[in-house]
Design brief:
The chain has about 260 residues and is α/β, with parallel strands linked by helices. The protein has nine helices and 15 strands. The longest helix is centred in the middle third of the chain and has 11 residues.
Length: about 260
């Protein structure tokens, strides 16, 4: 089975995918490309969905909305960042960093007081720093080791409990008996007072725990939103989803399990 993940080599997606799937990983340049390959049934995929510091990952949320795929699993990855440079850190006059990494390490970035160049990935940050022959970068440990970079400061993230939630996606629904969570997208086609209250009230009346709710532009005009909901899977939850289908438009993303990564035990 092919597993598509966000490249280039050294990204957190690459690191996590390799730990779970080994050499089955195929790296592609964008998250959108992962969804395209999965929808065509060329393999499964793994994408970052949300970070405890920076919130939802827009391209992944858009992919779940736009492509015919199912969530089949989730995994929580502790995320740590490392400040690297080719020369002594005090000589650095530019910092290469991915925008989400910047957000997660903003305290260190601000304290350096040098120009920041945003890149497409942590691996690209290392590459651009090396090509420039100067400056510094914030990257993953895997990237630092792959490029033989000198680590000047370890774990420079704002929060030592920094975690990214990844989900696995497939063109086939997961039907295992160990599913513990479910996800849906609610796409209201009407705009009226109390609509969201009525929608969430269905879950409240049935005693269902919502673990996440996030809004995202529907791309049908200003002020139009869709809502991503995660919930604890149960028979009551299935009743709630059925009731919702009679009230508004929903996209069911499936029921899924939490994956384990033995190296983190």
């Amino acid at each position: 089975m092919k597993i598509f993940a966000l490249g280039p080599e050294g990204t957190f997606s690459h690191e996590l995918g390799y730990q779970i799937y080994g050499d089955s990983i195929i790296l592609v340049p964008t998250i959108r490309r992962i969804f395209e390959e999965v929808e065509k049934d060329h393999g499964d995929g793994i994408v970052p969905l949300e970070n405890s510091e920076a919130g939802g990952v827009g391209p992944s949320l858009d992919g779940l909305l736009q492509y015919r795929v199912w969530i089949t699993g989730e995994v929580y990855m502790p995320v740590h960042h490392y400040l690297v440079s080719l020369r002594p850190l005090e000589e650095a006059d530019v910092l290469y960093v991915h925008p989400q990494t910047h957000e997660q390490c903003s305290e260190v970035v601000d304290a350096m007081e040098i120009p920041v160049v945003h890149t497409s990935s942590n691996a690209q940050s290392a590459k651009e720093m090396q090509e420039s022959g100067r400056g510094a970068a914030i990257v993953s440990l895997m990237t630092a080791r792959m490029h033989n970079l000198s680590i000047r400061r370890e774990r420079v993230e704002n929060n030592s409990l920094n975690v990214t939630r990844f989900v696995t996606i497939s063109s086939h629904q997961y039907r295992g008996g160990d599913a513990r969570k479910g996800s849906i997208i609610i796409d209201p086609r009407e705009d009226r007072a109390g609509l969201l209250y009525d929608i969430l009230g269905i879950f409240a009346r049935k005693g269902i725990n919502l673990t996440r709710i996030e809004s995202r532009p529907s791309k049908r005009g200003m002020g139009r939103y869709v809502f991503f909901l995660d919930f604890i899977h149960s028979s009551k939850a299935e009743e709630a989803v059925s009731e919702l289908q009679g009230m508004t438009v929903i996209k069911d993303l499936g029921r899924y399990r939490e994956l384990e990564v033995p190296e983190w035990k």
